[in-house]
Structure formats: structure tokens, C-alpha cells
Amino acid sequence: MEIEVAVAKASKWATGESGDTLEMVERPHGGLSFVLVDGQRSGRAAKAISNLVARKAIREMAEGVRDGAAARAAHDYLYTYKGGKVSATLNIVSVDLDSGTIILSRNSRCPIVVITPDDELRLLDTPSEPVGTRKGTKPQITELPLEEGTAVVVFTDGLEAAGARSSCVFDIPAAIQELAIAGEVNAQQLADRLLQRALDLDNGRPRDDISVLVLRIVDRAGDGVRRMTLRLPV
Amino acid sequence: MEIEVAVAKASKWATGESGDTLEMVERPHGGLSFVLVDGQRSGRAAKAISNLVARKAIREMAEGVRDGAAARAAHDYLYTYKGGKVSATLNIVSVDLDSGTIILSRNSRCPIVVITPDDELRLLDTPSEPVGTRKGTKPQITELPLEEGTAVVVFTDGLEAAGARSSCVFDIPAAIQELAIAGEVNAQQLADRLLQRALDLDNGRPRDDISVLVLRIVDRAGDGVRRMTLRLPV
Q1: Full-model pTM
Q2: Dihedral (C-alpha) A231, B224, A189, A120: value to the nearest 10 degrees?
Q3: pLDDT tens for residues A178-195?
Q4: In this structure, are residues B74 and B57 in contact, taking their beta carbons and an 8 Å threshold?
Q5: Which B positions 149-188 lie with beta carbon below 8 A of chain A?
Q6: How many other CB atoms are found less than 10 A from the CB of residue B119?
Q7: How many pairs of residues across A and B have Cβ atoms under 8 Å apart?
Q8: For residue B30, what is the nearest residue in chain A, using CA coordinates?
């Protein structure tokens, strides 16, 4: 069995820097966590906020703090630091080899899309608040078994907003259904194609920062080697 | 221009967990840093040490602390925490978009191999101590311009030790020269092939944890999208 994680990230048109931050951290009890934060607004101000929130979350998680507590800590930190005036969405996707589960922590109005091993599409869309502005904000936590055939798609609101200016609004669950369930795509292809559709809807000029993270559990006899690749246009 | 970074990581034969830790962190002023730590010995004890050192380094760097100071802080932290009795190698590879350079920080007896844009192979092998055991230990810092054709290969000592039991000792610079300068390989292929040669020399049963990190700057008209892929066998 092998876990594939892929991320594709584009910046709002004509702003150099994405306001979204993605961090990865090894879990001290085994496994990995990915933290995806979208800071309010765009550009440098958003980047500073998303960096602050992501940093707090990974610092906690690197010390073995559980996901839900790390998300609460990130909220409390931003709320205290900015006096409740600035918000950010926060998603944590963890592969926990200790418990043998995927842990999804969500502080965002965007849903998380899950494909189950029997090809059912499930939306995690319980009402959930971004961190930073409302005292005592809690994450929505979902735990899934590490099972072959499971896929998880997490995204920031730039993906949902794509094409909102034109008549065609991006139906993300339908796109995921079509791409992932009908076709045989790996995590990177799924992330890339979702992002590409959003960019197409915005005529290549995204109106907001867009980040897509895909996790997929596949039936592959691994060689025991962990691999990571990163491509960074400059 | 695009920056490719690839990592391949294998565990010592018959130990579940690699004692090497790799972490990635976004630089608050733009860019990314990769921290690779090899804790003394192997298995859980080594993992705990490498995690401790990597965590300290990324915590500093996430707050904007410069690479050399982060490496010194990681040393001081381990030296203080373990009373100078435990060592770890520490390499930091940073893509600093603010200064437009690659910053290499090295606390390891293993060299870093650099391929320059004119296909010269350069060994960064100034004497350098691992962190943790000798008071005041400093990193060797090298800064390179972000120039197309540059490649950097960083590895932990498990790669050098491969095959040491048999008669064939792994000549890493020669292998890099052959693979990277003669052939057209991307960062992931270069990391994979170096690791594969080491595994072959050890008959598929590595005597130590092995990690290889390759950074390559290529001439590719990017689409402005950052991409990351990770594969984790479980």
C-alpha cells in the first residue's frame, strides 16, 4: 500500500506571492501532516497571516500535539495576536501511522471531498468557521481508516471562486467524480487537473490564490522508499 | 526557470523507522528550506534525536532566522539538551527568493556535491562537524546564485557506507558525474538512481538509513504553479 500526496498551488493573477501557505511536518509518533492555510485577503499581508497560523500549527504538531489541539492553538494564537480582527482558513491533513488513520481537521467554509474505497463521494461540509475571529473556534475533525482506494481532496476558496465572474460556476464535486472515479488518475494528475479547470474558468488569470491538496491510498507494492518531489517556478 | 527538489529516503534494513528526518518549511521572505538530519545510531532513538534537531532548525527558520543562525541554534539546543553526548548531522538547503541564491548549510562529514552550469563538479568538503557534541560547533555555509544548470546533491552517511562490507565502495561523485552530466535526468531520477545504486551495493538490505536530496535548476517555461508530490509506502 502506498500513500500519495500531491499539492498544486497558484497565485492570484498579478500578485507575486500566494497568500496560501502549505507546510509539511513529520509526526513524532510516525507519519506526516500537511497544513494548508489561506490568510484573509491576498499578497504580502495574507502571506504573513497564513505563515503565522501554519507556523503555530506545525510547531505544535512537531512536538506530538494532537491535530485538534494544534488547530485550536493556531486559532487562539491568531485571535490573541490580531485581537480577533483577522481570519484564516486552516486545514490539516495527517497520515497517522500510529493509529493507522487519516485525520482531517477543517476550519474553513470549503468542504473536503472524500472518495471512499467503494467509489462513493462524500462531502465533509458540516458548518465550520475559519480561525482567528470568533472566540473558542473549534475544528471539524474526521478520521478515516488508511484503506486502499480512499482519496481526499482539500482546497482553498480560490478554487470555488473560479469562474464566478462568468456564468459557469465550478462544480468541484462533479469534477472530482468525473476525474477520479471515472478515470485512473494519480494524486498529482488529479490536483493538476482541478487547478487547470479553475485556471481555465478564470481565463488563466485567477482572481484569488488557489491551492489544491490530494491524498490517495493506492495498491502498490512499495520498495520501502519514501519519495518527495517539488517544482517551484521562479 | 524552475527549481526541482527531490528526496529519496530508505530505512536501515529490518528497522521500521528511518533515523533520518526531512522537513520542509516556507521562508517568510520568499522561498523554501529543506532540513535533513541524521541522528546518531538508528531506529527510534535516532529518530527522536533527528526530530528534535530538525524541529529546532525549522522553528527558527519559519520565524525568518537566517540559515547559519538556525544551524547554530539547533546545535546549541541538542548540546544543552543531551549534555554534549549525542550527535547528529544537519544539512539545510534553502532556495532564497529574496536574495536569489541557494544557501547550503552543512554540519556533516559527508560532502555536498555541486554541479555548476558549465558542468563542472565541485565538492563542498571543508572539514565540518556534526552538531551536538562539541561546544560552539558552526556550519559550513556556501551560497550559490540561482542559475540554470546548477545542481546540488546532499546525502546522509548511509549512502557513503553502502557496499562498505563488500569490496566495491560507492564512489558518489563519480556516480553523480555519470548520471547527471552525461545523461539527461531530472532531480527525482537522479535521487532515485543514487539511492538504487546504494541499495544494490547492500544487496537490498541497507546497513544504515539513507537519504538523498537533489536540487536542480532547469530551463523550463513554468506555468507559475508550484507542485509537490509525496509517496509514502506503508
Answers
A1: 0.93
A2: 120
A3: 998 777 789 999 999 999
A4: yes
A5: 187-188
A6: 12
A7: 184
A8: A17
